[in-house]
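Work Package 3 (structural annotation) set out to generate three-dimensional models for the target panel prioritized at the project kickoff. During this period the team completed the workflow that converts sequence records into C-alpha cells, so that structures can be stored uniformly alongside our sequence database. As a representative example, we reproduce one entry of 419 residues exactly as it appears in the project archive.
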Amino acid sequence: MANLSEMPVEVLNNIFSFIAGPPLGKYDVQKRRAHCLSAISKVCRCFHTIIRPLLFDNITISFGRGPTKAVQLMRSLEEHPELVKRVRNITVYFGYSGKVSHSNGNELLKVVSDVQCLTINTIYGDAPFKPHFLDKNPMSKLRTIKVFDDQLRMTGMQEYIRIPQVQQFSFACPFLGEFPQTEKQTSNLLALDLDIQFHIPANTLGKVLSMCPRIKHLRCAIPGNRTLDGRNNQTIGVSSPVSPKEISEALANAQDSLEKLELVHCECRWGGHDNSKMDLSMMKTLKYIYSPHWVFGTGYEYGIKSGLYKFLPASLEELSIHFQDLRSATGFSPYLKPDYEDHFRKEKMEYGLHGEAIWILQLVDHKDRYLPLLRTLKFTGGSDYDSNPLPWWKPHKHVVESLREVGIGFMRRVQEDDC
C-alpha cells in the first residue's frame, strides 16, 4: 500500500488545497480550516513544507486588547518575505476599537501588497477603522472590499468607494452623517452590496450611484430614512413612509450602466407608503429586477399595478417579484394600514392576488412595444401560510398560457423569507 507521504508533491499540494478552500467570509469556518491544515502540517516535514504556504492564502486575524496571533503573523511575514506574495484574501477582526488595535491592523495591512479581497470587521467597536495603510500600500491587486463597521460615517464610506482598483464593495454600516460629493469624484465600482439590516436614504444612494458611472450590480434594502438604536447604531425602523418615486430618482443616476437590481425587504418597522410607483422606464441597460411587490403599486390593494409594463425598462429580461409577509404599518409592511386587518383573512388575500392577473395580461398585450426582451416572470414568497398569500395562489391556466405564447416563462417559488 502506497504511503501518503510518498505521493508526488504536486498531488499532495492539490489535495491540501481542497482543504484550504476558497474564503467564505465566515470566521468559524476559516478558523476550522486553518486548524485542520495546521494539524496536518505537523505530521511530517514534507507535509509542513507543502502546507505552510497554503496557510497564508486566506488569513483571518483578530486584534484585541492584549497580545494576539497578529504579532506571530507579522514576525512570520518579516522572516519569510516570500509568504507575503501568498496572501490573497485577508479578514481582519477588531475585538475592541482602541487606537492600539487599529494601529496594529494598519501595520499588518501595509505589508500584504498582493491582497485581492479584504474584509474589515469592527461591528462592535466604538470608533470607525480608518484605512491609513493605503497611504503606503495601495494594494494594486485589490478588487473586493467588505466592511462591517457600525461606526462608519459617510465620509469613510466615500474613501473606500474612491479606491480606483476596487470593483466590488460590501458594506454593513448605519450610513451616519451626510455623503459628501464633488463633480470630480468618480469610482470604478462594478458591484455594490449594502447589508439588508441597514437602510441607506434614497438621496444618499443617488449620490453614491452618481460617482459610480460603471456600476452594473446593486443589492440593498429598500432605501429609506432609518431610525437607529442609540446604543449600537442598529436600524430598528424606517421613520418616513417608503417612497418608490424617490427610489426611482436615485436609481436614475445609474441608468446608463446598471444591469442587475436587487431591492430586498427586511423586517424593520416602516412608517407607511407614500402611494407612489417605482418607474424604471429610463433605465437603458437593466436586465434583471428583484423587488418586493409593493414598490410597483399604489394604494393598499394588490391589483393596483395596472399599467406596470410602462414603468419597466425595455432592456429587461427577468422580473422577480417577492411577496413578503403582509402586516400592518405598525408591524413590518409599508403596504397595509392598521385598519386593513381584515386583509389577513385567507379569502381576502386570495381575492387580492387574483388581481395580479390583470397587469400580467396587460404586459402580454404590450410586450412587443415595451418589453421585447423579457423572458422570465417570477413570483417568490415566504413559507408562512398564516400571513403570506403566495402559497395559496396559483395563476389561472389562461394567464400562464398567454405568457408562454409571447415567449415569457412563469415561475412561482415558495421560499423562506430573505430576512
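The two ends are 52 Å apart (CA to CA).
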